[in-house]
Every structure is written in C-alpha cells, then in structure tokens.
Amino acid sequence: MTRPVYSSVTRISDLDQGNYRVRPLPREQWQTGDYIVGKVMDTAGRLHSIELINGRMVEVMKDDLVVGALGARAATLEAVGDWRSMTSDDFEAMTPAGLFGKVTSVSPFLPHLMRLHYQGHATRGDHKVTMLGSLPPQPGLDIDAPIILIVGTSMSAGKTLTGRLIVHLLSQAGLKVVGAKLTGAARYRDVLSFGDAGAAAVYDFVDAGLPSSVCDADQYRSSLDYLLSRVAAQSPDVIVAEAGASPLEPYNGKTAMDILGDRIVFEVLCAQDPYAVVGVTSAFERAPDLVAGGAANTSAGIELVQKLTGLTALNLLDQASHGQLTTMLRRALALRDIAI
Predict the structure, then answer these.
(1) Nearest residue to 75 via CA among 178, 219, 187
(2) Single pTM value for the model
C-alpha cells in the first residue's frame, strides 16, 4: 500500500509506524474518533493541504491516501458537517488536521473542501484503532494552578493571538506556563503557537481523544477531566487556556467554563464587534475582565464597548496597550514581586 499521509489528529497514536491494516467496516460499527483512511478524489479548485503530525502543512494530490478521524464540525463562519451525515463512502476533510465527515453547510466565502473516498478503518486484529484507545493512562491529578481563560464571540475573533501575547508576557517573567485549547475543531497550529510564544508544554482536546469538542456533554466532561489531569502533571505556575469558537456554539465551551469554575482568575473575551460583546455577556450574565479582538481595533470600538457594557477593552495589536494588560495580569495572579 502507498504510504499514507498522517494528519495531525493521528499524533496521539502510533499509526505512522505502519503496524495496522486498512479494512472496510459496516456503518453500524463506526464511531466518532475512529481512525479511517480516505483516498483523495480530486484537488482542482479545492483546498488540498493536510496538517501533519508535527504541524507542518503538506499539499496532497489526487489518489493520495490520508489518515484522519471521524468527527463533527459546527463552525459559524466556515463549515458544518458530521460523519453521521454520510450517505455514501464520499466525505470531506472538514479541517486540514484530518477531521473527516460529510459537510452539510458551507460558507460561500470558503474554498471547496477536499473530497475523499473511504478506503477502510485502521485496524489491528479484530479491533479498530481509535483516538480514545490511543491515549496513555490518565495521571489522575487535580489542577491547582490559576487559569487565564480566553473565549470568543465566534471563530477568528482574535483568541489565539491574545493567548500568544499572554503566554509570552508570563513566560518572559519566568513563570512556567502551560497552554491549552479546550474546545474547537482539530487544528494543531493554534496550540503550537502557544509553545512558540514560550509555553513549557501545550495540549488540546485531541490530546484527550477528541477530533473536535462537538460531542455529548458527558463525553466532553470526561475528556476535559483527562486533559486537565495531563496539564496538572506539568506542574505549571499558570495555565493559559483558549476555548475555541464561542461558548454559545455547540463546542461545549459553556461546559468547559462551568467545570473550570473559580479556578479562572482572569477572563478575556475576544469579539469581532462591540455588539457581539453585548450578546455574549448578556447570554451568560458574566462579565469578562477584558475585551480584545476586532471590537477593540480602534478607539471608536473601544469607546463603544465601554458605552455599551462598561467593560475595559484593549487593542492588543498596539504595543502601547501591553503595559495595562501586564498590570491586569499581575493583579489577577497576585504577582506583586514579579515584573512582567
């Protein structure tokens, strides 16, 4: 068999060692998180890049084989889909990370997604190879480090940029920072950028066996408990956590916030515009400590956020705002003797 391309959702497995075989299975045996192999049907006029295990992007060609995982996506600005919507053996790579399923709704501004044809499941003996089955044992530890949580009104609201900046400021101060992406659809690049900014270790929901956090709330709670235990094993001084997409979307962002509870010492809301800030804060009856993202790109936006909500907003793209952010972080973390 031609050596497949291993997408980044396979990074928690040892599939790249090749010790498996590809075997078609009846649909009633399929489950979210199953590793499957698809053959690229065509690339003309379509997105045709796959994110590898190390986060690097590679362009694939027609008839290449790609290993990914069955899952679901519910992006407000890009694509919606689920493997359960497949009516044939054809499906799409819903993200370049290898999140596989049938797209049911797509933005007209998004290029056509890569189409693949099901070749079979990755199997060993009589058993499927799955994301959950690839996880190491849970350390069984509780989080005691403070958490800085970054949420958004939607995808592409500025969460990852904000997280990188906060990770950088805290790690430059000598703190051991662990970065985490708690919800969203599989992409390795976001959490890797936290590592580039200085985080000592990075994790996301893939490291807890989920191809995306669009799943049953009980399943998500179990996976988040596992993920937080792995984070705790790093003995961080502080955790910078991003909740991908919006807490109002079906990614279990609200569930994550409820579980983290009072361990959250500082919350940043990234928003596209000031009116979105009003919507999220009203829905949750919870005010963030800071508003960032597109809503704070100009003085007019900052003033409107203040007028509508009374909240502090900062344009974090402007280095002049970093001093005020530093003061807020120091206060939240009680870092009186550490100069950030």
Answers:
(1) 187
(2) 0.93
